[in-house]
Design a protein that fits this description.
Blueprint lengths: L19 H23 L3 H4 L3 H6 L9 H19 L12 H10 L2 H14 L4 E8 L5 E7 L9 E8 L6 H4 L3 H8 L5 H14 L1
Antiparallel strand pairs: 1-2, 1-3
This protein binds manganese (III) ion.
Length: 206
């Protein structure tokens, strides 16, 4: 059985950048529904129930054909949101000097330029999806990508460092159609400590 981990901060902890009602609905309704749908999909496949959602998404070709799309959508929804809650924290946490900042500066020219490119990926994702800072599992290189729906970069040879949910459910109550304002505001609550730790773990595995 897959389950929703508890949130490490209260629903109102990311205000004014992300409002409490959006957080509550996003977590208790949207994320919970992905978990419920994933559990329903794997209930006839006991060997899959005991795998991690990461393993399911890593090996999509091993999934039974009848549940593959459901696992991509709802397993992806579960995995992406689990990370998303951890990628944010009250007041945010700045990116200090270290491996990740150096790699970002080398790849994108500067941290500010990285932010521009990441924001652009988030703004230009048509419809529902995510913007990501990823590491290529083969080359170890950083990259910015966006995916549609709940598609997760780990299914495409990437590891995730940072991700931004740009589904309307993530911002519409507070920002309505102003996705760009939500994206700009989101930097205030990014937990770069999490991203930095994740990057260090990934480098060790490469
Ligand atoms: Mn969402």
């Amino acid at each position: 059985m897959f389950k929703l981990d508890s949130l490490l901060y209260s629903y109102d902890a990311l205000q004014p950048y992300i409002d409490a009602l959006t957080m509550e609905i996003h977590f208790t309704k949207h994320h919970q529904t992905y978990v419920n749908n994933l559990n329903a999909a794997v209930q006839n496949y006991p060997d899959l129930e005991n795998k991690s959602v990461y393993d399911l998404l890593l090996n999509l070709d091993n999934l039974p054909v009848d549940i593959k799309a459901t696992v991509i959508n709802n397993g992806g929804g579960h995995y992406n949101h689990t990370l998303f809650w951890l990628m944010m924290c009250p007041q945010g946490k700045a990116l200090g000097k270290g491996n990740l900042l150096t790699a970002i500066e080398q790849k994108f020219g500067s941290f500010e330029q990285f932010k521009v490119l990441f924001e652009n990926a988030a703004k230009t994702r048509f419809g529902s999806g995510w913007a990501w800072l990823v590491v290529d599992r083969v080359t170890g290189s950083l990259d910015i990508v966006s995916t549609s729906n709940q598609d997760c970069p780990i299914s495409n040879n990437k590891e995730v460092i940072l991700g931004l949910d740009v589904w309307e459910h993530a911002y519409y109550l507070h920002y309505q159609n102003r996705r760009a304002d939500y994206i700009t505001a989101w930097w205030n609550v990014v937990n770069w400590g999490f991203a930095q730790d994740k990057y260090a773990q990934i480098l060790q595995k490469l």
